[in-house]
From TrEMBL:
<dbReference type="InterPro" id="IPR049790">
    <property type="entry name" value="Rv3655c/TadE"/>
</dbReference>
<keyword id="KW-1133">Transmembrane helix</keyword>
<feature type="transmembrane region" description="Helical">
    <location>
        <begin position="15"/>
        <end position="36"/>
    </location>
</feature>
<protein>
    <submittedName>
        <fullName>TadE family protein</fullName>
    </submittedName>
</protein>
<dbReference type="Pfam" id="PF07811">
    <property type="entry name" value="TadE"/>
</dbReference>
<keyword id="KW-0472">Membrane</keyword>
<feature type="domain" description="TadE-like">
    <location>
        <begin position="9"/>
        <end position="51"/>
    </location>
</feature>
<keyword id="KW-0812">Transmembrane</keyword>
<dbReference type="InterPro" id="IPR012495">
    <property type="entry name" value="TadE-like_dom"/>
</dbReference>
Amino acid sequence: MIRRLDDRGAVTAEFAVVVPAALLVVMLAVATLVAAGTQVRLEHAAAQAARLSGRGEDAARARAAVDAAVPGASLALTAEGDLVCAVVTAGHGIPLPVTSLRARACALAGGG
């Protein structure tokens, strides 16, 4: 019996190589979209915390606003002259060694 060489199984082998790479690209794209959404929420939370602190609200109220927008995010409030600045930091969820997401916003102190 003579055995012929043909392309049988080539499609299966190519599929087995391409699918994991394609899945990795899709998963990273989804993680990036989630991180972008988190960044938008961080910016909103930082602005809200700065406004609340600028109005003279308690720091706990600003912390609650940040927790409502981005659970688990950290908040740092600082006074810079006539401004109250809020820095909100959170993880990004992307399985790569990149820095955390961060947003900073300032508001005029003593605003009513």
